[in-house]
Amino acid sequence: MARRDALLKLHKRLLERRNALRQILAGELNELGSTVRGDLSGDAADFAFDTGSGEISSQLAELEARELAQVERALQRLKQGTYGICEACGKRIPVARLNALPYSTFCIDCQRELEANPSAYDRRRSADWSKVYETESSMEEKEVDISEIEMDLSSSGR
User: Are residues 14 and 74 in the same domain?
Assistant: First the structure.
């Protein structure tokens, strides 16, 4: 029961972090938007400073967006019941590791192996690329009718 309680606390932490990251990203995106539309009346030094600041803000936003994606993925794994299970070996990830890095998807041993040999993980998750690659002859056989293509713009958030 202790692991279940720890996972519930981690769920709460993940939700709090997700909300915090969303607020931070919204503020940074607004700031970046205002920098792009900003006043161009300054001199070259002002422009260079603004450009440098915008680049740093952009990089920070990218890092936070990656973390947000990892947090979202962890929350999804919680819903699926796979949270706290190593994606590589299938063993339980220790609660101490999850406390340190709540969106971790690997146990420490598999993480070390991945860092030492990234291709080891790639081999475990290898895809069937034969279905992706198409030869010219298979392309000629297929005809695409534009009326068969359907676009759903209602879920795009616009």
Answer: yes
pLDDT per residue over 69-98, tens digit each? 999 999 999 999 999 999 999 999 999 999
Residue range 1-10, pLDDT digits in tens: 588 889 889 9
CATH number of the domain at 46, please. 1.20.120.910
Residue 143, classed as helix, strand or coil, is: coil
User: Does residue 5 share a domain with residue 65?
Assistant: yes
Give the burial string for 12-40 (b: 16+ CB within 10 Å, else e).
ebbeebbeebeebbeebeeebeeeeeeee
Indicate the number of domains in the chain: 2
> What gap in Å lies between CA 64 and CA 68, rounded to an integer?
6
DSSP 103-118: T--S-HHHHHHHHH-H
Q: Alpha-carbon distance 83 to 4, whole Å?
A: 11
Domain span holding position 35? 1-83
CA gap 25, 65 in Å, rounded: 7
What are the tokens at 66?
């990656």
- E strand or H helix at 48, and its extent? helix 44-80
